[in-house]
Structure formats: structure tokens, C-alpha cells
Amino acid sequence: xxxxxxxxxxxxxxxxxxxxxxxxxxxxxxxxxxGLAKGTAHGILRTLQHEGFVEQDPxxxxxxxxxxxxxxxxxxxxxxxxxxxxxxxxxxLARSSGxxxxxxxxxxxxxxxxxxxxxxxxxxxxxxxxxxxPLHSTALGKVITAYDPVAHTEAVESExxxxxxxxxxxxxxxxxxLDLTRARxxxxxxxxxxxxxxxxxxxxxxxxxxxxxxxxxxxxxxxLAPGGELRxxxxxxxxxxxxxxxxxxxxxxx
Length: 254
Fold this sequence. Notes:
The protein is α+β, with helices and mostly antiparallel strands and 254 residues long. A 6-stranded antiparallel beta sheet has the order 5-4-3-8-7-6, sandwiched between helices. The protein has a two-stranded antiparallel ribbon with strand order 1-2. It has 9 helices and 8 strands. The radius of gyration is 21 Å and the shape is elongated.
């Protein structure tokens, strides 16, 4: 029988300790609770902190669970149900819009496509499930960044590459886009990531009203945004789809 890895067992014990009881614990409390020397405990905590599983309060020096651990937990609970709940609604959206539909979630430093409904025509298309999209320039990425604090941190701290002449890369301009996204409830990408391609996306929330992903319609810019302006009925359809999926996840009406 294979032996357990002691360092992983100790790290797991620390995470369980931080998950219960007080919200924040000091190094001495953690070390004594798991039966380790302070130096050993500190080394494990530094590793967990580097990976985002633990955060240290700069003022008190106390530790608490990190956003990365919470995000992984939410991913396990939400992604499979999110995709299952979205199947019918995204199929309907692709059929009514005549365009491709993507369902995306936050993953590492970008948006992971977890579901893709092909444009309902006879054109040759490539399945994009598993593909990654940037947070700062895509419609999916902007929506998720606007509503998810973890995504916001990722987008702000990462390099915002200019994919086209339309990409917004400066911090102030990017924050203005996020403010506008929250105000109107949707985001767009009109040739900001790929020349000739436009998209519009809206957020999906769960029963706790937490953002768990976003749904988007994407296609040729001349079809989605003739004259440079997104078709209003397309925006409405995407928002209706996102609301329907959110209701199925228990978010209620909003």
C-alpha cells in the first residue's frame, strides 16, 4: 500500500483548520493546533500562500483561506451543473440568433470555454470547448471580471496585451469598461480580440447570487454589429439566456 505524503497531509490539516473556527489564525495557533514546529508550519503556509490557497493579513500577520481555494471549490460545485442547466437555453440562443454561443468560466488567468453551440448553418466550424480567452478584451472576460472579484484581481495584475488597435490596455480605461458593464449588465467585444469578430456576453449567477460564469454570442462583426453598433435584439437575447440559466441555478428573478 502506498504511503501518504506527509507534507500534503499537513497542508490539508492547516486548510481544514482555517476553514473552521475563527476566520483568521496566527502562526503560533496554527502550528500548535496541527502539532508542528513554527518553522515547519511557516514553510507550509508560505507555499500555500504562494499558490493562492492561503492569504496573510498584512496588518495582523494572521492567515485565512485564499481566493484560489474558494474558486476551486466553486468550480467543482458549479461548472458541471452550470453546463447542464445551460444546455437547453444556449441551444435556443444559437437557434434564435443564428450565431455561435459560448459558455465560459474563470480559470487561472483567463476564461475557459466549457460549452460551445455551433452556429446553426452548414459552415465548417471548430469546437472551442477547452479553449482559453483573455479576461480584458473578450466579452466573456469583461463580464466575468466586472462581477467576480477574483477575476478582477487577475485581470488588473496581469499584462493586458493589445490584440488589435481597439483593445483597451490602460488601467483607467479598463476600469471604465467594467463600470459600464456593471451598469448595463452586459459586455461586448467588437474586434478587440480578433479582427472581424464581435461578441456580446452577460453574466450567470447561482443561488447565492454569486457570478459563476457568462454566456456569449459570437460571430462576424458585420452580422453582430452592422455599422459598428451591436444589434439591440441580440443583446436582449443574450441577457435573457443568462437570466434563464441563472434562474435554473436558483438565482431567482433579477
